[in-house]
């Protein structure tokens, strides 16, 4: 059971072979237990949400919202799953999947269900993933889409022949307890915002990671928050 008290989780390996000590239950819940979390921006306290919440939308991006309205909450548009997706060398990779528009898995015993089972044998739900444009970040096009692998546009499909490589991210715990997202197709970039503007309804984009490492910068850091922590004002940490 999780409370707002922190429980030490020693040697949580995130983003590489170096063990990271984390005292944040939400990071542990997101990366180890795959519990949905709210990704709150470190700078202004806004949260990431898909620009379009409907399950049928696969060509819209991600934006930063500053108010949690009932429609978004009812549709779970404020929640994300950070789902394991393999390894890049020794670095674990993840998908950033929206809880909004989640499609119920096919019934057990059907051919479709057999093709999408998790480790426990249960059919996996279909969730729309944050997908990176092949030409990001130098392209002026919207560099992110939220959609299923088979339904995003061509430039958001696998750059190197793999269907999902444009949807895989390195997730790194920063020294200050947040997390940073780096796409494997563009390791010199980081999840940020259009024109580096962190404001209401800012479009999430890939921006160059001028820091040069996988921890990013304060302005490109997010705090995963569990439901009982949504009213905690984390934006004051750096003031």
Descriptive tags:
single chain; 239 residues; mainly beta; four-stranded antiparallel beta sheet; 14 strands; 7% helix; disordered N terminus; disordered C terminus
Task: Characterize the structure shown.
With 239 residues, this protein is mainly β. The chain has a domain at 21-103 and 165-211. It has 3 helices and 14 strands. The protein has helices spanning 25-31, 70-74, 111-114; strands at 9-13, 19-22, 38-41, 47-50, 62-65, 80-88, 91-98, 129-132, 144-147, 169-173, 179-183, 189-193, 204-208, 222-225. The strands form 6 sheets. The protein has a 4-stranded antiparallel β-sheet with strand order 6-7-10-11, with helices on one face. The two termini are 32 Å apart.
Summed up:
With 239 residues, the protein is mainly beta. The protein has helices at residues 25-31, 70-74, 111-114; strands spanning 9-13, 19-22, 38-41, 47-50, 62-65, 80-88, 91-98, 129-132, 144-147, 169-173, 179-183, 189-193, 204-208, 222-225. The chain has a domain at 21-103 and 165-211.
Number of helices: 3
Structural class: mainly beta
| SSE string | EEHEEEHEEHEEEEEEE
- Assembly state of the chains shown: single chain
Alpha-carbon distance between the termini?
32 Å
Helix content: under 10%
Could you tell me the number of beta strands?
14
The parts where pLDDT drops under 50 for at least 5 residues are 1-13, 15-19, 113-120, 234-239
- Report the β-strand fraction as a percent range: 25-35%
């Amino acid at each position: 059971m999780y409370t707002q008290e922190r429980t030490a989780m020693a040697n949580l390996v995130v983003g590489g072979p170096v063990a990271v000590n984390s005292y944040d239950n939400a990071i542990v819940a997101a990366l180890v237990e795959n519990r949905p979390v709210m990704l709150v921006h470190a700078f202004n306290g806004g949260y990431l949400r898909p620009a379009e919440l409907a399950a049928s939308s696969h060509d819209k991006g991600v934006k930063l919202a500053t108010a949690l309205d009932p429609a978004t909450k009812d549709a779970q548009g404020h929640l994300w799953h950070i789902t394991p997706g393999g390894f890049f060398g020794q670095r674990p990779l993840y998908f950033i999947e929206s809880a909004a528009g989640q499609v119920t898995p096919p019934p057990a015993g059907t051919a479709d269900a057999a093709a999408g089972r998790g480790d426990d044998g249960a059919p996996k739900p279909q969730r729309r993933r944050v997908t990176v444009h092949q030409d990001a970040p130098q392209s002026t096009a919207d560099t992110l889409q939220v959609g299923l692998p088979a339904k995003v546009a061509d430039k958001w499909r696998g750059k190197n022949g793999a269907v999902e490589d444009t949807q895989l991210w390195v997730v790194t715990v920063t020294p200050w307890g947040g997390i940073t997202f780096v796409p494997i197709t563009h390791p010199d970039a980081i999840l940020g915002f259009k024109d580096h503007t962190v404001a209401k309804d800012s479009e999430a984009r890939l921006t160059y990671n001028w820091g040069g490492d996988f921890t990013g910068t304060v302005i490109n850091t997010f705090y995963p928050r569990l439901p009982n922590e949504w009213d905690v004002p984390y934006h004051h940490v750096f003031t």
